[in-house]
Amino acid sequence: MPRLPVGIVILLIVSILVYIGVAQRVLDRLRLSDKAALGVIAALIIGGFINLPLPRGPRIEASLNIGGGLVPLLLAGYLIAQTETMKERVRALVGIVATAGAVYLTGIFLGAEPENMFLDPLYVYPLVGGVVAYLIGRSRRSAFIAATVGILLVDVITYLRLLITGTPGAVLIGGGGAFDAVVIAGLLAVLLAEFIGETREWLQGGPTETGKAPALLKHLRTRFQERNNQEENGLMKDPEEGER
What we know:
The chain is mainly α. It has helices spanning 6-19, 24-29, 34-47, 66-82, 86-110, 121-137, 140-165, 177-204, 214-235, 239-243, and strands at residues 51-53, 60-65, 169-173.
């Protein structure tokens, strides 16, 4: 019986969480509605089975996977357009380069004997990419952009290296194991940003104001206050209910 790729299994789980409303807060930070998120997930899964051929050289085969390559690039472009400040855009772009560099160096460090590692390279690359993407990007959008595009950039670099040097080989940008790596890295980066960001806001009693646009600050304060009100109301019992 054929096994589903790890990335598709994760996407199916995420789609269920989106459907039942668990991921609402994260989607709000990413400027995505539930319907848009489910549409992106469907495009990732369906596109994961479609490859577009790329220009090839002698003894070089190359293609672009729709779900693992093209869809994440389009989503990253949309998220960059939704950023509130130039500082966040710069962080996202720097994060892409840093993530790609970290993943590329990790590949060199692993060498040709991944079986000697305590963790499968399939998980090492996205773990490295996700952590680096968060450290550089910091915000949910920037971290996601840096993680996904950074992983893909490594495939692009490999493709260009084969074309320039004429080295025989095959590259599937965003396909194969890279599909899983893109999904895991992007999700990990967002989860790190969400967990650490929410913890910081809770400890300091609200969002930080430095470097944020006024419209974004107003939105964050409103969301923070609404969440606190909901938590307080949830903890308080209705007097009439208590008498029953």
